[in-house]
Design goal:
The structure holds 2 protein chains of 2 kinds. In chain A, 45% of the residues lie in helices and 10% in strands. By secondary structure, chain A is mainly alpha-helical. In chain A, the strands form 2 sheets. Chain A has a two-stranded antiparallel sheet. Chain A has a two-stranded antiparallel ribbon with strand order 4-5. The termini of chain B are far apart. The chains are: A mainly alpha, B alpha+beta.
Chain lengths: 220, 257
């Protein structure tokens, strides 16, 4: 069974598909030539055009609204996805930036992203974090960790730049939530929630890392 | 001179490909060297770590034909030149089945549908090993995901794997990592890449979208190369420039006879 167009000169390669009748996985083939042409086209476009980066900023009201809706330190994957999509709709992030930003679906964008990243921190404790769930849904912590991976020797840091923007917004949301909580409790202890968050509970991080390290191949 | 090294690298890589993995790990002074055993993981799907036999070690040693190479131009295999603690290790491999949305040509993977994890052996050559059923289970999950979350009326197919390899380097005087990625790949990467390493204990992560290789089989064992390369550093005491090869990949149908 072929899943893409038919051409006499096309090369077909194996793929796995869902049999619509049985719901079972079955082997088929796809038009590899067509896919590679599409990828090559994207690579050529990437060479000619600078990457599109979102440059809009959120208003204070929008930050407040987000702060009411999401807890930056405790977000589910679907909440995080929704949050990132909101930032894309607002022009803070471009589609290119959101393609690989820890959402539940990562899209390959040929030509724009280097395959290699280098860990830019003296401490490697957090370098095993891959997903939001690795840090228990703490999006603030997740974004902070992910900013430490950078494209080696390049001034173009699409992913790191995107995570930095996300981190800044999450910090603002966190501060807004902190001030709201502070107002509600009439607390005057002067604690800065942002500082508290950025300081992070190291024991929690260690627990998360230990969990990842103890991970073996998942039961598939 | 570089050609000589390239040829040598090719010979060594061919040798490495001939065995699933071998455990040399960090290059440490002989007195500090520790034996590296087979995986203590209980899951059969985990990569098997193979200890080099004496014969295999001899082959590797005999491939070191670059002793007279100019030190400022060339690399040497570091296996018989232990100096300070230096080395390279595959610290993590994650494999994600890779899907194409046929109507748009968009390639994507789902981080929650993956296999792999942190490797504890500090080996410079690692492969994720999956049985036929384990692989099919992952494909089924991703295809089900596409049915539930994809665009209605669109078609989805799994065309390969996104393989993410985390490489740990260690040397007092690190220089660079050179690497190539497997083919066919959908990332448009064909040439060798270099990453400068500026500090001791640096991690490099290489993620690559790979198509099923030419030796793909539904039922027979086959291997997919993800990343291969070398870590080059200056030896702490001898001032020699040394290189240690590394390799990562995935193996399928490992339960096939």
């Amino acid at each position: 069974m072929n899943v893409a167009g038919i051409s006499n000169t096309a090369v077909y390669k194996p793929c796995y598909m869902l049999n619509q009748t049985t719901g079972e996985v079955e082997v088929g083939s796809y038009n590899y030539t067509s896919l590679m042409e599409n990828i090559q086209k994207q690579i050529e476009e990437a060479k000619l055009n600078p990457p599109k980066i979102g440059n809009e900023e959120l208003s204070e009201a929008e930050i407040e609204e987000l702060a009411e809706k999401y807890d930056p330190q405790n977000m589910s994957q679907s909440e995080y996805d929704e949050f990132i999509q909101y930032l894309e709709e607002k022009g803070v992030l471009s589609r290119l930036e959101t393609s690989d930003l820890g959402m539940s679906r990562i899209t390959i964008m040929p030509g724009y992203f280097e395959p290699a990243y280098i860990w830019a921190s003296s401490s490697g404790m957090e370098s095993s974090v891959h997903t939001l769930s690795d840090v228990g849904g703490n999006a603030l912590q997740f974004a902070q960790i992910m900013t430490k991976w950078e494209v080696p020797g390049s001034s173009v840091q699409i992913r790191q730049g995107a995570y930095s923007k996300v981190l800044e917004i999450l910090n603002q949301m966190n501060a807004a939530r902190g001030s709201t909580a502070s107002n509600q409790t009439s607390s005057t202890d002067g604690n800065d929630s942002t500082t508290l968050t950025l300081g992070m509970d190291l024991s929690y991080i260690q627990l998360a890392i230990d969990r990842i390290k103890s991970e073996r191949i998942q039961s598939v | 001179m570089k050609r000589v090294f390239s040829l040598l690298t090719l010979v060594v890589m061919c040798f490495m490909l001939a065995i699933p993995a071998f455990a040399v790990g960090w290059q440490v002074p002989e007195a500090l060297a520790t034996a590296v055993g087979t995986s203590d993981g209980t899951n059969e799907a985990w990569a098997e770590r193979v200890i080099l036999s004496d014969e295999q070690r001899e082959i590797l040693q005999s491939s070191k034909i670059v002793k007279d190479i100019d030190s400022d131009d060339a690399d040497e295999l570091a296996t018989s030149y232990p100096t300070g603690i230096a080395g390279v290790a595959i610290e993590e491999i994650y494999g994600y089945p890779l899907m194409v949305e046929v109507e748009t040509g968009a390639l994507f993977y789902v981080p929650g549908i993956q296999t792999g994890g942190v490797l504890s052996n500090q080996s410079q050559s690692e492969s994720l090993r999956l049985t036929t059923q384990q692989t099919l289970n992952l494909y089924q999950r991703l295809l089900n995901y596409a049915v539930a979350n994809g665009t209605a009326g669109y078609h989805y197919a799994i065309v390969g794997w996104y393989v993410d390899t985390k490489i740990a380097t260690r040397a007092d005087y690190p220089m660079y990592v050179k690497y190539t990625v497997g083919t066919p790949n959908f990332s448009g990467i064909t040439e060798e890449r270099t990453v400068n390493i500026t500090s001791n204990g640096q991690w490099v992560r290489v993620g690559i979208a790979l198509g099923f290789p030419d030796n793909f089989s539904e039922t027979e064992y086959y291997h997919m190369n993800a990343v291969s390369g070398s870590f080059t550093y200056k030896a702490a005491f001898s001032n020699k420039i040394l290189s240690i090869p590394f390799f990562s990949g995935m193996s399928f149908n490992c339960d096939a006879a």
